Amino acid sequence: MIGVFYHHSKSTLTGIVLESKLPQWEIGDVKFEANLIQDQKYNLFDYHIEHKTPSLLKSITFDNGRIWGYKKIGNTANEELPIKNQTNWEFRQINEHTQYLYFGHFSNRTKKEHLAFYESVKQKLNAENIIVDLRSNAGGNKKFSDVYLKLLKNKNVYVLTNCFTGSNGEQFTYKLKNLKNAKHLGQTTRGVIAYGMNYGYSYGSPSGYFEMTPTDMNFHEFYDFENKGISPEIALDFNQDWIEQTLKIIDSKKS
Predict the structure, then answer these.
(1) Which residues are within 8 A (CB) of 199 and not within 5 positions of it... i.e. 6 or more apart?
(2) Euclidean distance between CA atoms 213 and 30, whole angstroms
(3) Domain 89-254 homologous superfamily, CATH
């Protein structure tokens, strides 16, 4: 169990071990420290739960009693997270007027699956309203995301994001928002959008205690959203199903 303590200004959050069944962790140990960047965004310095290796997690949101994987005990408001046991991609016909697309990621590692999913849905997207669910989409290759822009440009598009939507997931969100009839709903994205890693090279320090993975891709056109994220026009309630809330918004627009 981790207790999160913060200064009155919430400029620093510290995670302290309150209970532990692991021999490497004792009560009172610091599990993480998070320093405020702006608004609800923090840089989080964390120690791995097994081998206590330190790491830096950039632009982590403190919202809804949650920071990264740490959630307040008793808080059952989890509707910002994707549906449990959902596949990496999903197409669904919700009703006569609305269809649903879920993208868990756009990783190069599953190129064949991306292409197969695109081929399976490109002729099916014929509803006037399309919900595009990008919750927890950590990004990937824009070749697998941007092909949908042409399919969606004449639709009423409703984009769902949470604070774990990052990298190309955020870039795709931005591009979708620029479509004529698009609305962005949910929660502000993570804010790791202006840099990327194509090759994933890492380098060890001379001491052997640290490992650095530099970025090798520059998306400077998105720099205004770095460490900030892309905020939705409509924030959704954490206590109610986000797809159901979106459907009510669609119905209210029709009426």
Answers:
(1) 216
(2) 24
(3) 2-enoyl-CoA Hydratase; Chain A, domain 1 (3.90.226.10)
219: amino acid identity, one letter = F
From CA 236, how far away is CA 85, in angstroms rounded?
22
Residue 59 contacts by C-beta under 8 Å, 6 or more apart in sequence? 37, 41, 42, 43, 190, 191, 192, 226, 227, 228, 229
Which residues make beta-bridge pairs with 159? 132, 184
Report the distance separating Cα 167 and Cα 39, nearest Å.
19
Measure CA of the first residue to CA of the last residue in the chain; give whole Å.
48
70 contact partners, CB below 8 Å, separation of at least 6: 2, 4, 15
Per-residue pLDDT tens over the stretch 55-91: 999 999 999 999 998 998 898 899 999 887 788 999 9
Question: In 7-68, at which residue ranges do the beta strands (DSSP E only) sit?
Answer: 12-17, 30-38, 41-47, 54-63, 66-67
pTM: 0.92
Helix (H) or strand (E) holding 71: strand 70-71
